[in-house]
Specification:
It is built from five helices and twelve strands. A twelve-stranded mixed beta sheet has the order 7-8-9-10-11-1-2-3-4-5-6-12. The longest helix is centred in the C-terminal third of the chain and has 18 residues. The chain has 279 residues and is α+β, with helices and mostly antiparallel strands.
Length: 279
């Protein structure tokens, strides 16, 4: 009985203080549909406060801090920094759950407003996820069929990535092909609020667009990964290009490297989280 009381007490504390929590998820993905055994993992944070939530890679958070620290010291050698695999950031505002998606394509950074509805189907099925007894729900979103497990014990209608709208926190969600999954691994208390992407210092201008425009830019970027850089050079903009070791690289050499890398990335990154971006 003491053990049961302790679990219930801890859960009550979590619910009371849920507005200042960090929910730690493990993101497992198969980026290349032709190499299903090559499973990548990254630890992602869902930071929740009274104003909303921010979902981002833990590795990116660490690498950004290390890079800014070196820049302040006048060091432009970024070798040895793990920049992580997942570059995007998702922010949701409460209580309307307006969703903003931040990502860079070529030399531009985009702020994408995603107002697509998420029409969940809640099912009676229950399953034990970690210490929680979770309920099942399904959703068609982004060209994939998703199965989610949520807990009403944590009354936050949020979850990893863009997912939201269930009557409780999503503790696990995976697509039908098992290519992408997010599983809650840990809950941490936070004392400070998170900084929005709009408040962060950025070396490039953030361009606000809707999903339709972003999709067009996404396809263009895959087909022509050096378009933005070439436009900058053609306009007379002085661009100093450096490698991770801090040494300058000739623009034309950088173009060839980027085009080669772009083709290789496209071939290996064909199993996107949102498959309908390619359609």
């Amino acid at each position: 009985m003491k053990k049961i009381f302790l679990v219930l007490f801890l859960l009550s504390v979590l619910i009371i203080d849920a507005q200042s929590q960090r929910f730690v998820y493990e993101y497992r993905l198969v980026a290349d549909s032709t190499a299903k055994k090559d499973v990548k993992t990254e630890i992602m944070y869902l930071d929740v406060s009274k104003k909303g939530s921010k979902f981002y890679s833990s590795e990116v958070a660490i690498s950004d801090s290390m890079r800014e620290d070196r820049i302040k010291k006048g060091i432009h050698d970024f070798s040895g920094i793990n920049f992580g695999y997942i570059p995007f950031v998702v922010e949701k505002s409460y209580p309307d759950y307006k969703t903003l998606f931040f990502n860079s394509l070529d030399v531009d950074k985009y702020k994408v407003t995603d107002d697509r509805p998420q029409n969940w189907k809640i099912l009676p099925d229950k399953e034990k996820i970690g210490e929680f007894t979770a309920q099942k729900a399904t959703l068609d979103f982004g060209g994939r069929k998703w199965t989610a497990w949520f807990v009403t014990d944590i009354p936050i209608q949020d979850g990893p990535y863009k997912f939201h709208g269930l009557p409780g926190l999503i503790v696990k969600i995976e697509d039908k092909t098992n290519s992408h999954s997010f599983v809650l691994k840990e809950v941490k208390k936070r004392n400070e609020d998170w900084v929005t992407e709009g408040e962060k210092k950025s070396f490039t201008k953030v361009i606000p667009v809707n999903m339709e425009t972003y999709k067009k830019q996404f396809i263009e970027s895959r087909n022509n990964p050096t378009k933005g850089l070439r436009q900058m050079l053609a306009s007379g903009t002085k661009v100093i290009m450096m490698g991770e070791n801090g040494k300058p690289i000739e623009p034309e050499m950088m173009m060839k490297m980027r085009e080669k890398e772009g083709k290789e990335e496209n071939a290996k990154n064909n199993n996107l989280l949102e498959l309908d971006l390619l359609k």
